[in-house]
Amino acid sequence: MKLSVEGITDRDVWEHAGITLPGYNVQNIYDHTRMEPRWLHFGIGNIFRNFVGGIADRLIAEGDIDTGITCAESFDFEIVDRIYRPFDNLSISVILNNDGTTDKKVLAPFGEVIKADFQNAGEWKRLMEIFTAPSLQMVSFTITEKGYSLTGLDGKYSNAAQRDIEQGPAKATGVIAVVTAMLFARYQDGSFPISLVSMDNCSHNGRRLQEAVWTISDEWEKRGYVDKGFSKYIHDASKVTFPWTMIDKITPRPSKKIAELLKGLGIEGIDPIETGKKTFIAPFSNAERTQYLVIEDDFPNGRPPLEKAGVYMTDRKTVDKSEKMKVNTCLNPIHTALCTYDCMLGYELFSDGLRDPELAKLADTIGYVEGLPVVENPGIISPKAFLDEVLQIRMSNPYLGDTSQRIGVDISQMVGIRFGETIKSYVKKYGSAEKLTGIALAIAGWLRYLLELDDQGKHFNPAPDPMLPELQKYLKGVRFGKPESLEGQLHPILSNINIFGSDLYSAGIGTRIERMFYEEIQGPGAVRETLKKYLR
Question: What pLDDT sits at residue 417?
């Protein structure tokens, strides 16, 4: 059994193995996608393949659309060379049910795959052809939170962003610069309308995408790369929109156990890989069944009927409430808080850590005690029911196999979003955030995690994070077992509005976090004892 367009023509073999095949002509979809591109996506990793790809697959299967998604990768070209093209762009979706069973399906909506690489003239030209096509309605993104960031902790442009600014549209490398360059081409070729739709787990994702694109455009205009008419085009909401969204589906790294399961069914060459850029990906993706996608319905050039595939199409206010419920209150803060403590207390799987009495209490405190009182009900989803589902069904699913290391990737980009909004809500409501215990412990735990020592003082490898070296410089001199070595090192971090959106000392919580961190570096067992003390 080979995962290819030709290989899946032997339907009986695949279906006998319990794998559902596309109910449409795959090659026709591929051909039509190339001729009339309507949906382009940047960031073609696991959640895209399983969730976004699954939405498109369902719409194609039910006859609601007749083109697939054009897939663009700007960061890790190995994904294209090793995961997409060798398998004719096909992917296997594996849904991990709570009872240990799996549902397996071949997805085939990925009509064309492009490397967004200016050094590859053919690919760059093709990307420009797609982006300037009048038929193109939307460009979506799953590029992670760091993909939208142009600055470092000091508020200055990163080296990569500065390089993109200086080199201009013809040599854009970062995804924001690439997209801005392509928008410039679309503007020059007819100024056709388009929607740019961030589907990443970050607060006000549409605004972040908008601001990043506008920033690159402004810098290019200063240098004469683009004209004022381009700025007018991308600021015109009748031409270019940046809808806000909320996306939710826990999608762990591809599991070796699932690979063995698929190989046992007879499928060839299905093993996961780790690319040179530390992307963990496979010809299959495994994920939970639960999924939510809420999108602001603002598409000046039309859109696919996404609501027919279970997507909530609504207004910005409802999206904002849904996103705050999930990203700031009911899911992501719990993930971010517990994953660092998992590493320090020796848990590899997140579901195992959630069964730890202290960590379970921390999750309840952050969600039920501190989060729900300040969350606004979006109306389309009940916050209490959502949180119940998160803690009782989703995060506790032992078959999901989600690791705390995966959740902790790029965590410095997340702590401000995950905790900063609730802190600001408490300041607004009560005048101070001093009563927040769970969130204070979460931030103290993140800082303690930066020392790369577990609760017994043994070294562990933290998850990849581009800001790790910079943050660890602040902690220079802090010693495990010597709390007196803490002499103000946390102040530059906790007062940094670029991290948290506010000065945590002014918010009334900074000193409390320092005290918790002080207690967590006392010596062996201090992390657990600190959790016990504050969560009584």
Answer: 85
